[in-house]
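Researcher: Let's walk through a ligand-bound prediction step by step. First, I give you the protein sequence. Second, the SMILES string for pantothenoic acid. Third, you return the three-dimensional complex as C-alpha cells. Ready?
Model: Ready.
Researcher: Here are steps one and two:
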Amino acid sequence: MENRLNYYQIPREEWRLFYRDHYVPLSSQELMRIKSLNDVISLKDVEEIYMPLVHLLGMRMQSRNYAQGKLADFLGIKHKKPPFIIGIAGSVAVGKSTVARLLRDLLTDIFPHNKIQQITTDGFLYPSDELKKRHLMKRKGFPESYDMKALINFINDVKNGLTAKAPVYSHSVYDRIPGKYDVIDQPDILILEGINVLQLPSNQQIYISDFFDFSIYVDAAEPLIKKWYMERFDLILDKAKDKPEDYYHAYAIGDRDIAHKMAEDLWNDVNHKNLHSYILPTRNRADLILNKGKNHLVDELYLRKFV
Ligand SMILES: Nc1ncnc2c1ncn2[C@@H]1O[C@H](COP(=O)(O)OP(=O)(O)OP(=O)(O)O)[C@@H](O)[C@H]1O
Ligand SMILES: CC(C)(CO)[C@@H](O)C(=O)NCCC(=O)O
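Model: Step three, the predicted complex:
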C-alpha cells in the first residue's frame, strides 16, 4: 500500500485480502446466482474487489448511523436513519451503471432487510427538444445539459425521507422517455450513478455530493474507455436491427463503417471533451477510485485516508 497525498494506493493483490476474516467466501452456488444477475462482471472481481468493498460500505453505514444517533441524542429528538447515499462517477461508458447494479445486488444479498434502490442521473438530462432549443445536442452530458435544479430537489427529497420521482432516460431512444419515472421511496440505501455526480452545478450553490455518504469514481485509461464505448455501440446497434422505432435503427441496418465513424466522432467531439473538461477534474473528490484495466478488471484502488 502506497501512501499518497489524501489517498492510500492499494494494488488489487492487497485489497483482496482486506476483511478476509470477516466474511465467508461466496459458495459456487452464490457465485452462479450473482452471475445470472449480472452477466458481464468477472466473478473473480466480485470476490476479490466488490465483496471487500461491500464490507467497507457496511462499516461506513454503521458508523454513519452511530453518528446520526449521537446527533439526535444531542438534540433530544427521535433517532432517524436517512438513506445512505452512494454516488458513482466516471466517464461515459466506463462501466458506472454496471458497477451500480452489481453493488445493488450484492448489498441486497448481504443486507436483506434493507431496501436498496439504484438510479442514474441520465434521466435528468433535458429532453432532446429542449437540448435542441438550447443548441446543446453537441454538448449532451456537459454540465449545462442537465436540469441540475431538478436533480438537487430530487436528492434533497430522498435524503429527507420524501417519496421522489426520477425521470428515465433510454440510450436506444436517445432521449428521456416521456411520462416514465423511477419512484424512490424511503430506501435504506440509494445508489446514484452518473457522469456529473461529483460536479458543482454551475447555477446552484450546493453539490449533489453534499448528500453522499460514500462516493466512488470508476476510472480507466481513455483508449480502453473508448473501446468499451464502441463495443456498447455495437450492442445497441444489434438490438436496434429489428426495431424500426429505435433511434439507431437506420445505422443498424446500414453500413457499419459509417455507423462506427459516427460513434467515433461522437466520442472525439463530445465525450472526450466532456471527460477532460468536466469529469476527470472531479476524480479527487471521490472517497474511492476504482481503476480498471483490460477486460474491465480492477487493477488498483485509491481509498481516501480521511473519513
Ligand atoms: N465489469 C465489467 N465487465 C464487463 N463488461 C463491462 C463491465 N462494466 C461495463 N461493461 C460493459 O462496458 C460498457 C459500458 O458500461 P456501462 O453501460 O455500465 O457504462 P456507464 O459508465 O454506465 O455509461 P453511461 O454513462 O454512458 O451510461 C457496456 O457495454 C457494459 O456491458
Ligand atoms: C447520456 C450520456 C450523456 C451519459 O450516459 C452519454 O451516453 C451520451 O449520450 N453522450 C453524448 C454523446 C453520445 O451520443 O455518446
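Researcher: And what stands out?
Model: The domain at 2-304 is CATH 3.40.50.300 (Rossmann fold). The chain has one domain: 2-304.
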